[in-house]
Design brief:
The complex is a heterodimer. Chain A is 0% helix and 53% strand. Chain A is built from no helices and eleven strands. Chain A is globular, with a radius of gyration of 13 Å. Chain A is mostly beta strands. The mean pLDDT of chain A is 95. In chain A, strands 2, 4, 5, 6, 9, 10 and 11 form a seven-stranded mixed sheet that branches. A four-stranded antiparallel sheet of chain A has the order 1-3-8-7, with no helix packed on it. Chain B is an all-beta fold. In chain B, the strands form three sheets. In chain B, strands 2, 5, 6, 10, 11 and 12 form a six-stranded mixed sheet that branches. In chain B, strands 3-9-8-7 form a four-stranded antiparallel sheet, with no helix packed on it. A two-stranded antiparallel ribbon of chain B has the order 1-4. Chain B is globular and about 45 Å long. The N and C termini of chain B lie far apart (41 Å). The model of chain B has no long low-confidence stretch (mean pLDDT 94). Classes of the chains: A mainly beta, B mainly beta. Chains A and B meet through strand 5 and strand 10 of A and strand 5, strand 6, strand 10 and strand 11 of B.
């Protein structure tokens, strides 16, 4: 079974631009979560989607948004990019939510100049 | 809100010796607990989890962890370390009763296995 895939793997943007990241979950998984990883703040939860509905949201500004499609694929969008948005963005999928194991993709490395 | 503490930024162990990576947590109610490993420029790989039941959990690559409710700990252990175990290890928690958060991770512990 194929793992979680994320595209693109690397992205360079400038301040003020917007960006969309994509995540394809493991086949059959209905829940997708997004995390931001930085050297200073570590791994931080962004949001969680299940069956196209946002179930949970972390403490991030409204510039960060996401959605999930009927095939469970998910996208996250960051508008008006700031230098501090430079990070590794990780997507994880699980069968459902709660205690189900989250399996992570390789991440998208976003650099904001 | 929940939290995870990994008190050691780095743990050094000689190859063949037992290893322990420490994790303590704080959560309302009962926890779901996880250990993940991250290799350079890679995503996180799942090692093991505690949901309920037996306090000793066995996972991938010979790793195990013991859930201790009274000490709110979930330390990761392996009887005999390999050089290939060198990586960044994360402990994570989520309340079993649900809530507004996803997984909450510790800051990570660099495990260095010396030949």
């Amino acid at each position: 079974k194929a793992g979680v895939t994320q595209t693109p793997r690397y992205l360079i943007k400038t301040r003020g631009q917007q960006v969309t990241l994509s995540c394809s979950p493991i086949s059959g998984h209905r829940s997708v979560s997004w995390y931001q990883q930085t050297p200073g703040q570590g791994l931080q939860f962004l949001f969680e989607y299940f069956s196209e509905t946002q179930r949970n949201k972390g403490n991030f500004p409204g510039r960060f948004s996401g959605r999930q499609f009927s095939n469970s694929r998910s996208e996250m969008n960051v508008s008006t990019l700031e230098l501090g948005d430079s990070a590794l963005y990780l997507c994880a999928s699980s069968l459902e939510t709660g205690g189900d194991t989250q399996y992570f993709g390789p991440g998208t490395r976003l650099t904001v100049l | 809100a929940q939290s995870v503490a990994q008190p050691e930024d780095q743990v050094n162990v000689a190859e063949g010796n037992p290893l322990t990576v420490k994790c303590t947590y704080s959560v309302s109610g009962n926890p779901y607990l996880f250990w993940y490993v991250q290799y350079p420029n890679r995503g996180l790989q799942f090692l093991l989890k505690y949901i309920t039941g037996d306090n000793l959990v066995k996972g991938s690559y010979g790793f195990e962890a013991e859930f201790n409710k009274s000490q709110t700990s979930f330390h990761l252990k392996k009887p005999s370390a390999l050089v290939s175990d060198s990586a960044l290890y994360f402990c994570a928690v989520r309340p079993s009763g649900g809530g507004a958060d996803g997984l909450t991770f510790g800051k990570g512990t660099h495990l260095i296995i010396q030949p």
